[in-house]
Amino acid sequence: MTKDSTRIGRDHLRVGLYREMFHEKGVRVIGINDGVDTDRGDDDFTPFRDIMSEWQARDTSRKVKSVLHAKAKNGKPLTNKVPYGFMKDPTDKDKWLVDQTAAEIVRRVFNLTVEGVGPYEIARLLHDERIERPSYYLAKNGIVNCPSWLEPDPYLWRGNTVATILARPEYAGHTINFRTKKSSFKAMKSKKASPDEWQVIEHTHEAVVPQETWDLAQKLRQTIRRTDTVGEANPLTGLVYCSDCGAKMYNKRNSCHTMRTSTITGKQYQRAPSDSYSCSTCTLSRQTYAKECTEHHIMTSAIRGIILDVLKRTTGYARDHEEEFAERIRESSALKQGETIKTHTRQIAKNERRISELDKVYRNLYEDKVNGRINVERFTLMSAGYELEQDELKGQNKALQAEIDMFNADSEKADKFIALVRRFTRFEELTNAMINEFVDKIVVHEGVWSEKTENYKGTRTQQVDVYLKYIADFNVPDSRTTEEIEAERVAEEKNERLRTQKRECERKRRERIRAEKAAETDEQNLPSELRKTA
After folding, report:
1. Which CATH number fits domain 86-222: 3.40.50.2300, 2.80.10.50, 3.90.1750.20, 3.60.10.10?
2. pTM of the full predicted structure?
3. Where are the domains of the chain?
4. Pairing state of beta strands 448-449 and 460-461?
5. Do the beta carbons of residue 418 and residue 329 sit within 8 Å?
6. C-alpha to C-alpha distance for 363 and 390, rounded to whole angstroms
7. Among 20, 132, 352, 437, which residue has the least CB neighbours within 10 Å?
């Protein structure tokens, strides 16, 4: 017995199946308001009533959806759950205010991420400091109703919780709607929508972290950083690139002293810790015995020293000559922007002409098929190739146009870099936060030897390009005096003489070891009676 037929369901197909099942099982069905009673016979109007009930449900769903879309267009959040770090305004339920207590924890999570700490390490750190997890905090303060706050450990942070916080654009001041969707109004379960389907309304409430910090955290999360025997991930991973093939370089390091056996003397020796980068293309090609690219080997300490030197010179110049620095950035960016726009515009016009030619070719090809000059198989094969080429050209044009549109005002780049410089006052030591905040990428070239002989290679020099954020590879004017330049030249010559002496001593030592090894081998090859005499 139901109030009416809609209480059974609004899907007329499923309701019909239930009615047939009730009829087969001998179940009496009564709909009070509809005047339906199967004991008095079947009602011929019942199927139409079920269809109209489904239409009414569909119409109601459409109206509710239009109301939600209108609310979302006005920048109002559709969710009733406030993210950790916010709370609802008591006077306006659609407005979010920053909860300063929780917002401090969120800012710390982002700052730790910028410093190179992973989500699970952050979760362990917050747990050890006895900081309440988000679900417990929100439920305890009555911000949301979350049953998981009854779990025994209120400080049990998880890595997934930290990763979710880092991925939410709400902390940058934006509202995100339509994260979930339903395939039909009949569906009971929601599905996650792709980020392309989200509705993003920017700057709707106060931000917890700056947009630059949020973007940097997303970039750092895209690169996998594994901890090895050192116990922490290398902060340069994901930033070092090969100059020839453009691939990322692999980091290889050994944190402890290991015992190795010399191939010359056969004696064991202790190998010192090492930390270096090599081209990934060269490393992977060794597995297939087909050498591609070269190693581009460089020590991590050398990269860090170069980065620190570049930061000292660039930030010092930007801090002491702000107006001159901004003017040089504008001139450099204007030149690059003009050249790029001209090149991209010519390429877009060339692609558009080719797309028009392909349209004509396709029409002629279709006429040949209709007139019987080519068969269907040949038409299908040729048309697929032309369509693929046309799609590639359209995609290339879209990417080129997007790159043209991405050019920012030149003054903004200089201002953003100067604002970044003001946040770091001392550059005596290179920290992980400085690397992630300043460095965009590092390009390593192959090392070059001054001399190439059998036993002596001279001096090895290697070019390393450091690209900083907002200003790329900015060349700092040389403000050294003649005396300073001469003093540096003399110091470099002295260091080069010391390095040459060290290499010569090492070469002589290796030759002596080889001679001793050869003498031992010759002695072992002598007969036993001659070996004693010898």
Report:
1. 3.90.1750.20
2. 0.65
3. 5-73, 86-222, 320-468, 482-533
4. antiparallel
5. no
6. 14
7. 20
By the 10 Å C-beta count (0-12 exposed, 13-18 middle, 19+ buried), 471 is classed as buried
Q: Is 369 exposed, middle or buried (0-12, 13-18, 19+ CB in 10 A)?
A: middle
Identity of residue 230: V
Q: Which two tokens stand for residue 358?
A: 């392909």
* CB 300 within 8 Å of CB 275: yes
> For residues 153 and 137, what is the distance between their CA atoms, to the nearest angstrom?
12
Q: Is 204 helix (H, G, I), strand (E, B) or coil?
A: coil
**Tokens describing residue 426:** 């001392």
Pairs from 95-101 (Cβ < 8 Å, separation ≥ 24): 95/205, 96/170, 96/205, 97/205, 97/206, 98/205, 98/206, 98/208, 99/143
Q: Do you know the residue count of the chain? A: 534
Cβ burial 32-62 (10 Å sphere, 16+ → b, else e): eebebebeeeebeebeebbeebbeebeeeee
pLDDT digits (tens, 9 = 90+) for 204-239: 889 999 988 999 899 888 877 666 666 677 888 888
The CA-based angle 242-248-249, given to 5 degrees, is 75
d(C-alpha 210, C-alpha 171), whole Å:
8
Beta bridge partners of 249: 279
- pLDDT tens for each residue of 462-489: 899 998 888 877 788 777 778 878 888 8
- C-beta of residue 102 within 8 angstroms of C-beta of residue 134: yes
Q: CB of 55 within 8 A of CB of 63?
A: no
